[in-house]
Specification:
Chain A: Keywords: DNA damage, DNA repair. The complex is a heterodimer of chains A (411) and B (244). Chain A is α+β, with helices and mostly antiparallel strands. Chain A contains 14 helices and 12 strands. The radius of gyration of chain A is 23 Å and the shape is globular. Chain B folds into 2 domains: 110 residues, Proliferating Cell Nuclear Antigen; 111 residues, Box (Proliferating Cell Nuclear Antigen), CATH 3.70.10.10. In chain B, strands 6-2-3-4-18-17-16-10-14 form a 9-stranded antiparallel β-sheet. Classes of the chains: A alpha+beta (411), B alpha+beta (244).
Amino acid sequence: MRKIPAELCVRCKGNKHLCGLSSCPIVERFRTIVNITLKVSAKESIDGSTPPSVVVGESSYPRVSLLFNVPPGVSGEDAREYENPKDWWGKRSIYEILNLRSSMISNVLKTKVDDVWKLYEREISLTTVSENPVLSMSKVNGEIKPSLKFDGYLMPRGPSINSADIKVIENPKLSRLMEKMIFDDVKASEGVIELYKNNHDLYKIINALSMGLLGRKKSRKLVPTRWAITAVDSVVGKDLLSKVREYDSINEVEVYFQQYLGNIFHVILYPSSYRVAWIEIWHPLSLWSNELVISELSENYWGVYDFMDGGYMAARLAVLESLENRKRSAGVIIVREITKDYFAPLGNWHIRETVRRAMQNKIATLDSLSKGIEFVESRLSKGVNLKSLKSVNGILTQRAIDSFLDYQGKH
Amino acid sequence: MKFKVIDAKALSTIFDVLSEFMDTVTIIVTKEGIKMGGIDPSRVAFIDIFLPSKYFEEFELTSDEYLGIKLSDVSAVLSRTTKEDSLIVETNEGKINFTLQGEFERSFSLPLINPEEQKSPTLNLQFPFKARILTSAFSDVMSIMEDMGEAVTFTSEGGKLYISVEGDMGTSKVELSTESGNLVDSQGSDASSTYSIYYITKISKMKSSSDILEVSFGSQIPIKLHYELPQEGYGDFYVAPRVE
């Protein structure tokens, strides 16, 4: 995260906004931790329903930490809201999400990635793909580590505590297809696509892959959640792209827009075969940056991109979904602006969800790509020249071979 | 229809390069030989490949045939081809069969797909500059340039050919001339044009099928990479320019 000089915070004490943020992250964090520790102090077990929420860590792989997240004392439907990205969208503010997330406790189980079946027998893995929140009880040992965890891909996590045992009290409720995929011996990628095609929540599919519930039975392993998120985005994206590439191109330049949590998205679709430029504009005082920083990534017709970026994969999925629905192909430019209001990373789910909403919100139709780019430029904060960017310039300058061809016998 | 080539590697490379540009291709077989190609789906490159009947060790045909094939499948079955192999291709009741003969014989049978409508466009361009170069030298230059940036500029000046890339780190430039021995010959006037390096690099893999390449270009027009194949066969690759 952006380093705020400590001197500033000492003088400020969270009141004067010297760091330029609209509220003090330290205070915010402190507040939620105080809430949580009060509720669970002097207890040997943590009871509550998991929304469900789980994270498989990646450090010290293959001996990983499994974090089973539970809001203490909250049970039944009320627990759902603690991990509910689809319904959060547009309603929950960054503070509310931070509050929800940090009032959950991560029960930490150390496990080996091969222990898929042990977790399955204890119903821990089934709980993570349940349609409903599931009541559980965790026998804890040690102290609560009162710190919040932030990450560019994962949702924020609350304080954690080592767990000796997690008991699942209620029955997890699984869809019939999810049960079938768990019992079937098919490749993980096929399982992911099957679930996705049958309208399963992407976040449940991520949990299923992460907990080793999909794939060839003898090669099932736990997959660190961060990897699973991008794996699901790219497996589904690859499947969609193979179809989208074949469709006819759109005829006009279309501009889409949406914003949420201090992230502003513009998507330009233009007549062309499929290719994508992804542009991120980090405003001064946004999360990871002190100055205006622009990063870009290009993907070509064949689906080859410059480098792997989890945020890009999430946005790309949303655009491909929309093209597949319309049965159209297009060239794509996605511009993401990150403003100072996005002061804590919340994971990449909001990128996926905001771009999904953007694709339902067309704000302009223009007759040339150049005009489309100028239009978006006029809506961005000053000082950003999109046309000068390598990725955009590459698109604007590339001629099509058709204009040099003669078709003999064409009447 | 049946044909045989002694150098299976040369033919499999042609299919391989084609497969990098398109998913399917229609092979047109006439008594003159074999033609295949088309416009790549990203509409930047145009490919025109001709293998005359003399190119083949054996060439049997009763009437003209249009054979639709899925290139990724062909490329997969031919991926283990070695220098020692010869290759027989024949059609039989909706199938195309590939037989590799070398240390041991391997046969593959693939379904034919519906051939696409053939428009056979042509490019009638006057290229101000032409140079011939060894395909291996050209491939070496492109693999050096590949990582340096995404746009490659071809410039001719006083009969010399300059290939340059402007990248994030800086500019890289290679000079080729007949004097230094790395051009076989060159002719024409000064010109300069920029192309996406991605396409040019993929084409340069043709070195396994051909020894000599003729590079033709002008300002703000496509580049033509003409790979000379035995018995007056050729692989022509046109790539549209980037124009500021």
